[in-house]
Predict the structure.
Amino acid sequence: MVDAHSTLFERIGGSDTFDQLVRAFYEGIREDDVLLPMYPQEDLEGAIWRLSAFLQQYFGGPQTYSEQRGHPRLRMRHSAFKVNPGARERWLTHMRRALDTLQLSPLDDGEMWGYFERAALSMVNTFED
Ligand code: HEM
């Protein structure tokens, strides 16, 4: 049921839910021998904060991400990494599993998943292996 809350951020339970999602996502990253080397090994907690804060902002929560990091410019920030279609599939697989742990309503799940699929497609910056 869609209740009176106006943003997805509020509907799914605020910051705690986003932290839970991103932590579950990073559990997958930790096991991924292709993606893990791209991430800052000494600062995975920082990476968890950045992704969670960004998603909270995107889905209608506090604007803390941009206060701390500036304009997201995600495609530009990903240009340092080799994001080919295989990397995109892996990223999405981890995010799908993480999203499943939240057991959201079909509407909220669909809104988040649709965004992740589109965003991941736009992050691809090479077709080389
Ligand atoms: C398609 C495959 C993707 C790969 C391989 C990838 C990889 C990475 C890596 C290695 C980082 C650096 C981690 C850090 O230090 O913060 C990063 C950062 C980030 N990624 Fe991705 N990413 C992908 C897709 C996405 C998507 C779809 C989103 C948004 C929905 C996203 C959002 C972010 C954000 C917000 C940051 C932190 C940016 C910053 O403030 O520096 N990424 N990504």
